[in-house]
Design a protein that fits this description.
The relative contact order is 0.11. Helix 3 packs parallel to helix 4 and helix 5 packs parallel to helix 7. It is built from 7 helices and 6 strands; from the N terminus they run E-H-E-H-E-H-E-H-E-H-E-H-H. It starts with a strand and ends with a helix. With 190 residues, the chain is α/β, with parallel strands linked by helices. The radius of gyration is 17 Å and the shape is globular.
Length: 190
């Protein structure tokens, strides 16, 4: 496991700044957030498909890695269904090009919400994730702070391209769920 930090919330920094920060803190990885945002959207971006091989090589030389891409899509927002699918598919392609094994996804609907939009979104992206050998990690927050609800979605697909990202805080604080209960619900999906 690589000890990493997320660039979520870090505005005004370059890719070189993030690499320097990782090295200075003796971390091994950088989790990328919103790689299609203004800071990284240009064709000169280190994440553009034409630059991906050079970025992978540069990271290897610096003894750094990108363990995960963090999608900005909301799986549970039916109003942005196609937009979310496009975002996740783009993250899957970028992850594949950069040899990143995981793409983190979220469902921001509140506890007890209908998960039909989540299922529809996953149906639109899971085949591509499997083909590209990228695993989508659904965070245990918001509607999925109830990990039994997440377990039911994961069981529906039973795919190696889909797993749980255990956010310890939300199941405990939002649902009073013990670690033992989360393990019982999600087990090998974590």
């Amino acid at each position: 496991m690589k000890l990493s930090f997320s660039i979520r919330g870090w505005q005004g920094y370059t890719w070189e700044d993030f690499c320097r920060a990782a090295r200075d803190m003796r971390l091994q990885g950088i989790e990328l957030h919103d790689i299609h945002g203004a800071a990284f959207a240009s064709p000169e971006s280190p994440f553009h498909k034409y630059n991906a091989a050079a970025t992978v090589r540069d990271l290897f030389e610096q003894k750094l890695a990108i363990p995960c891409l963090d999608s900005v899509a909301d799986l549970s927002d039916p109003a942005k269904g196609q937009e979310n699918i496009a975002e996740i598919l783009d993250c899957i392609e970028t992850a594949h090009n950069l040899r990143v094994p995981f793409v983190r996804v979220r469902a921001s609907a509140p506890l007890g919400s209908d998960v039909a939009p989540v299922i529809a979104c996953l149906e639109g992206v899971l085949e591509r994730a499997e083909a590209r050998r990228v695993t989508l990690l659904i965070e245990t927050a918001n509607v999925f702070a109830d990990t039994a609800a997440l377990r039911d979605v994961l069981n529906r697909f039973a795919s190696d391209g889909l797993a749980a990202l255990w956010d310890l805080h939300h199941p405990w604080c939002d649902c009073g769920e013990t670690a033992e209960q989360t393990i019982t619900n999600l087990g090998a999906y974590i």
